[in-house]
Structures are given as structure tokens and as C-alpha cells.
Specification:
By secondary structure, this protein is mainly alpha-helical. The chain has helices spanning 8-15, 29-37, 48-53, 69-73, 100-114, 119-133, 144-156, 160-177, 186-198, 205-214, 234-237; strands at 24-27, 65-68, 96-98, 140-142. It has a two-stranded antiparallel sheet. It has a two-stranded antiparallel ribbon with strand order 3-4.
Length: 248
């Protein structure tokens, strides 16, 4: 499914507590940063600074941001509207030998979108790993140790998109628990993504600060982990990214 298929801003407006009156919402700086870090924003198109600047017209002398509904709807311009997939799981990478081209496909399709490092830093880490796993014949051997290294990268430096996918997977698991025998419906997928962001509406003050700090690391929720047989079935497979070198 695509995030663009959901009228996210309309949904969020209906669930965000209104203040200082019934026609406005109040955001703090931490709210703005959380939405960016959670993948609400298309971070490939808009840097954090651009996202923060979008709120400048609504800033008050108290340092808060007060938005009317029309103001809030303008934020849809910045929203990530691409495909949503099941989170990339490094433990499912096929072990064995890879050519440089094949390994780069894995990097481009799976590792890079999931990692928060900039291109230069990630490429440095990839180059170091390749030196360690390169065999005398020139091929790259990916084993459990290499997969654990990649897993560590993503846990310690998740991209906003990965955080979104992890949260979405958690919300989708909750939706599927209500309908354990059937495939995920478009309505369930929509509610899962909407719940991902509306959770922000019910988090205040110090709790938001703790939530933001917790985003420094991200892991695949145990309820949708790769060791559970149901996660290899059609319900999550239908939204899983097609990735070369990954067991399905």
C-alpha cells in the first residue's frame, strides 16, 4: 500500500486534542521533531530544517505553534507518500557468496533505506565490511557475523522510514489480531498507519521527550518478528518489500 492512499492529515486532525480552543491545535518543538523522526515527513525530499521552517508562521511568543485546520492541512505537502512495507530484517538475508553487484543491490534496496547514516558514512561502513568478508576469489561471503553487523547498524542508526515501518508493523499486528483468519484489508492497513501517528496525540510533556530519546534505537517488534510462522504468510508478505538476497 501507499501512504498517499490515506488521508492522513484529515485523520490526525480528528484525533489530535484541540487547544487553546476547539478550532486549533498546539504543537511543541518536540512534536515537530517526533513527526520527522517517525517518518511522517518524506525525508528524502525535506531536511529537518525545512520541516521545522514550515511551522515558523504558526510560532507564538511563548514558543509553541498554534495551527488551525487549514494550517494543518498544508503539512500534507511534506508527508511521506511512498510505499509502506514490512521492516527489513537482516537475519533473513541469504547466507552465502555474493558478487559486488549483487551485494550492492542488497544495499540499495534494503540496507540504505533502513539506515539513518548519510550516504558517505554508510558507504564507508559497507566498504569496511566488504574488505572483511571478501574471499580470495573476489566474491563476498555473507555469514551470521556479517548479518549481525548489519542488524547493529539498523538498531543503532535507524532511518525515519525504518521507524515508520517498525511502528506500522506493530499497529498492523494489532489490527490483524482482530481478524486472525483473513488477510489484511485496506481499512486495516489505513487504521494501522493512522494509529502510528495519532499515538503522538496522546503523549505529552516529558513522555514525548522520552519517546524521542527512545527513537535513537529501533528494533523489530517481537510480535511481528521473523521467527513467527504467521509473519511468513500472505498477510505481511503482501506488504513486504521485494528485496534481492532475502528469504521470503
Amino acid at each position: 500500500m501507499k501512504a498517499a492512499d490515506i488521508d492522513m492529515c484529515e485523520y490526525l486532525w480528528g484525533h489530535i486534542p484541540k487547544a487553546p480552543d476547539s478550532e486549533h491545535i498546539t504543537y511543541l518543538d518536540v512534536d515537530i521533531e517526533l513527526l520527522w523522526q517517525l517518518g511522517f515527513v518524506d525525508t528524502t525530499q525535506f531536511a529537518m530544517e525545512a520541516w521545522q521552517n514550515a511551522f515558523a508562521p504558526f510560532r507564538t511568543t511563548q514558543g509553541t505553534y498554534i495551527l488551525s485546520k487549514p494550517d494543518f492541512m498544508t503539512l500534507d505537502h511534506y508527508r511521506y507518500q511512498g510505499e509502506l512495507y514490512a521492516p527489513f530484517e537482516p537475519r533473513l538475508i541469504n547466507e552465502g557468496q555474493y558478487t559486488d553487484e549483487g551485494f550492492q543491490e542488497l544495499v540499495d534496496a534494503s540496507i540504505a533505506p533502513s539506515c539513518g547514516w548519510n550516504h558517505r558514512t554508510l558507504q564507508q561502513q559497507i566498504d569496511t565490511l566488504k574488505k572483511e568478508i571478501r574471499q580470495p576469489g573476489g566474491l563476498l561471503t555473507v555469514d551470521r557475523t556479517a548479518k549481525a553487523r548489519i542488524q547493529q547498524w539498523l538498531e543503532e542508526h535507524p532511518s525515519p522510514l525504518r521507524r515508520l515501518e517498525l511502528l506500522f508493523a506493530t499497529m498492523l499486528a494489532t489490527e490483524l489480531a482482530l481478524n486472525p483468519d483473513g488477510p489484511a484489508t485496506p481499512q486495516q492497513l489505513a487504521r494501522a498507519e493512522a494509529s502510528t501517528f495519532s499515538m503522538l496525540s496522546n503523549t505529552v510533556g516529558a513522555e514525548k521527550q522520552r519517546a524521542l530519546k527512545a527513537l535513537e534505537k529501533a528494533k523489530l517488534p517481537a510480535s511481528v518478528g521473523p521467527d513467527r510462522p504467521e509473519d511468513r504468510g500472505p498477510r505481511l508478505k503482501a506488504i513486504r518489500r521485494s528485496r534481492r538476497g532475502i528469504r521470503s
